[in-house]
Write a structure and sequence with these properties.
The complex is a heterodimer.
Chain A (H helix, E strand, L loop, with lengths): L3 E4 L2 E4 L5 E7 L7 E6 L6 E5 L3 E2 L7 E6 L2 E6 L9 E6 L6 E2 L3 E5 L1
Parallel strand pairs in A: 2-11
Antiparallel strand pairs in A: 1-3, 3-8, 4-5, 4-9, 5-6, 7-8, 9-10, 9-11
Chain B lengths: L2 E4 L3 E3 L5 E8 L7 E7 L5 E8 L4 E4 L8 E5 L4 E6 L8 E8 L7 E4 L3 E5 L2
Parallel strand pairs in B: 2-11
Antiparallel strand pairs in B: 1-3, 3-8, 4-5, 4-9, 5-6, 7-8, 9-10, 9-11
The chains are: A mainly beta, B mainly beta.
C-alpha cells in the first residue's frame, strides 16, 4: 500500500496568515493527489485534485502544488471559514489512501 | 446536480448483520466509482474500498478485506456496504463518495454519512 504522511498534525494560525500543509507519499504517485476540507459533523469537501487543479467553486486562496512524492496545500490568507481539518488522498494506485489529517486551529 | 443520499443512522448489537446504502442521482451511475470511507469517533478518514457499478469491479483496503462487502445495483443507482457480523469497533460514521471521471478528481461528491452504532 502507498502510505500518505501529512505534517503538521495540528497547526495554530491567525486570520490572514499564510498556511502550508505538507503531504508525502511513500512512493511516487505522479500528480494523482487530492485535498479535502472537513468541518465538524460534515462530510469532506474536495478542494484540489490532480495535485494543483482547483475544484469549481473553491476560493482561489487555496492552491496545491507538487508531484511525485511531495505535495503542499497552501491557503494564502486564512479566513474564519477555513478553520477545519484537511486531508490529502492519493488515487494513483489500485487502492487509494488518505493522510492522517491536519487540524487548522485558531491561534 | 450530483447527489449521493445515504440511508439513515443504525443502532445494532454485536454479531448482527447490517447493510447500508448510497443512492446516486444527477449523473451516469455506471460511469463513476463509488467509494466507502470510515471515520471513527474523533479520528481521521479511512479508505475502505470502491466499486465500479458499470461492471461491479470492487477493490478493498487490506484493513477491510474480508470484514465488509461492497456491492451495487445499477438498476436502482445504489451502492451498498454490508457487514455479516458487527463488532463494537465498527461504530463509526460511514461516507460514500463518487470517484473517477475524466479527469479523475478523486472523490468529488460525497453522501451525508451514515452513523453506525454497535453496542450491547
Amino acid at each position: 500500500d502507498i502510505q500518505m504522511t501529512q505534517s503538521p498534525s495540528t497547526l495554530s494560525a491567525s486570520v490572514g496568515d499564510r498556511v502550508t500543509i505538507t503531504c508525502r507519499a511513500s512512493q511516487s504517485i505522479s500528480s494523482w493527489l487530492a485535498w479535502y476540507q472537513q468541518k465538524p459533523g460534515k462530510a469532506p469537501k474536495l478542494l484540489i485534485y490532480k495535485a494543483s487543479s482547483l475544484e469549481s467553486g473553491v476560493p482561489s486562496r487555496f492552491s496545491g502544488s507538487g508531484s511525485g512524492t511531495e505535495f503542499t496545500l497552501t491557503i494564502s490568507s486564512l479566513q474564519p471559514d477555513d478553520f477545519a481539518t484537511y486531508y490529502c488522498q492519493q488515487y494513483n494506485s489500485y487502492l487509494w489512501t488518505f493522510g492522517q489529517g491536519t487540524k487548522v486551529e485558531i491561534k | 446536480e450530483v447527489q449521493l443520499v445515504q440511508s439513515g443512522a443504525e443502532v445494532k448489537k454485536p454479531g448482527e448483520s447490517l447493510k447500508i446504502s448510497c443512492k446516486g442521482s444527477g449523473y451516469s451511475f455506471t460511469s463513476y466509482w463509488i467509494g466507502w470511507v470510515r471515520q471513527m469517533p474523533g479520528k481521521g478518514l479511512e479508505w475502505m474500498g470502491i466499486i465500479y457499478p458499470g461492471d461491479s469491479e470492487s477493490r478493498y483496503s487490506p484493513s477491510f478485506q474480508g470484514q465488509v462487502t461492497i456491492s451495487a445495483d445499477k438498476s436502482i443507482s445504489t451502492a451498498y456496504l454490508q457487514w455479516s457480523s458487527l463488532k463494537a469497533s465498527d461504530t463509526a460514521m460511514y461516507y460514500c463518495a463518487r470517484g473517477g471521471g475524466s479527469p479523475n478528481r478523486g472523490f468529488d461528491s460525497w453522501g451525508q454519512g451514515t452513523l453506525v452504532t454497535v453496542s450491547s
